[in-house]
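Q: What structure does this chain adopt?
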Amino acid sequence: IGRQLDRRDRAYAQQNADRAMESGETGTTSSWRNENSGNYGSVTPTSAPYRDPNQRLCRDFSETVTLADGKSETIRGRRCQKPDGSWEFVG
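A:
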């Protein structure tokens, strides 16, 4: 499904994930929607922040993306904070 997202969808999804990872309460869902494409998604932090072996701040999460045609996909994984403050998917 990720391959079917346009640049704006990806930007909304990344901004939403950054916000959810940075300040979201564990179990609280943060959502985004692109009115132009009709695609939308959400991220839910599923752990409190913790340090990985490299001392990066990380959180576990669940993320769902739904396309305008109704197809959806949910992934679970971990994001860690990069030096610039954004959060990257690491597994």
